[in-house]
Amino acid sequence: MNDDTLNGLLLDEEYTLTLGELSRACAMHAEWVMELVEEGIIEPRGAEIGQWRFAVPALYRARTVMHLQRDLGVNLSGAALVLDLLDELQELRQQLRCLDPERLG
Amino acid sequence: MEFEDYYEVMGVKRDATQDEIKRAYRKLARKYHPDVSKEADAEEKFKRLGEAYEVLKDPEKRAAYDQLGKNWKAGQDFNPPPDWDAGFEFSGGGFTGAGGDAQAYSDFFESLFGQRAGGFSGAQGGQRGFHMRGEDHHAKVLIDLEDAYHGATRNITLQVPEVDASGHVHTKKRTLKVRIPKGVKQGQQIRLAGQGAPGMGQGGSGDLYLEIEFKPHPFYRVEGRDVYMELPVAPWEAALGAKVKVPTPAGVLDLKIPAGSTNGRKMRLKGKGIPAKQAGDFYVQLKIVLPPADSEKAKAFYEKMKQELPFNPRAALGV
């Protein structure tokens, strides 16, 4: 094992992010993340803000919203809608792959 | 360095109005947005589009770009003429995409506008008492499915914008050697502490998030930790039962095919998916393949089956 090999931390199913970690990973303020929670785009565990913990998929969702806002000027409810449609699209593509593995690989 | 035709990238005429340029950007941005688009090279196209818009949306930058002349063609070898920008004031800052992602503009862009990135100076100077943690960066890492079974070490090359002593921005290649742990899934994140952007003052460096993505495989399909494959079998193997070899990312395994198996039958090799505390399963779907009737001997065999096997494949259709 070489010294220059980096060992990262795998953010697995059990890992959760704090509000601070999630905000930093999106390069956004905590207030912005709180807006996402209010909009129902991501759901933390924990009753009080200080105890909020986010499952790792929240990172993907929050970053997608950040990109949509920044690049396309989509507002929060629009971004929430896009996320739901993307989820549905992914599910349908998955089903299509099961039906027709030749076509989609 | 190659000339970039920003009008061509945005699909607008050279005399397009600012409104037309804005509309073209909005339309193409929706089409190529990497989070939404299914186009294969969406990310690259989106990046070029962002760069073109960065220049054309700003009347100052656009005017400076225009006076390079209209005889340049995309891809032509290009060096900016000396003092090409005399008389223009770039407001600087305004880098639309300069969010948390390490965004790299083309050399062409950097050579024309890079020096005026503005707002960066001072940042490196480390003003007294000013501390700020560096930004987190994000990147994708493509691995083989086999790497998820065995673990691996991968070299990852990132393009990082850097500001030199005179305030010029360059993109620098940075290569990291990263251990991919056994048992990773598509879409999972690996966090490398302190490998993001450097901080200011005594602020620590940001982190680097790597998103795992599997390369498409010619015969495996992955869902979560479960792996699927279609296994070709001969008609007699399906009919009479057989023991056949199955290639899995964990190595070649023996599979017992029960007699009387039909086409499309699904079989599960428990725990032979991606390893983990709760390992995934490996699913095999049988695909009966007919031997070709391409020799006298084979034709004679089919002929014999036709005569001796009372078999109507369309019985269920009532014909």
From TrEMBL, chain A:
Superkingdom per UniProt: Bacteria
Name of the protein this chain belongs to: MerR family transcriptional regulator
From TrEMBL, chain B:
Matches recorded under Gene3D superfamilies: DnaJ domain, Urease metallochaperone UreE, N-terminal domain
Location of the J domain: 5-69
InterPro entries membership: DnaJ_C, DnaJ_domain, DnaJ_domain_CS, HSP40/DnaJ_pept-bd, J_dom_sf
Keyword Metal-binding: no
UniProt-recorded Gene Ontology molecular function terms: DNA binding; unfolded protein binding
Cellular component GO terms held in the UniProt record: cytoplasm
Source taxon at top rank: Bacteria
Name of the protein this chain belongs to: J domain-containing protein
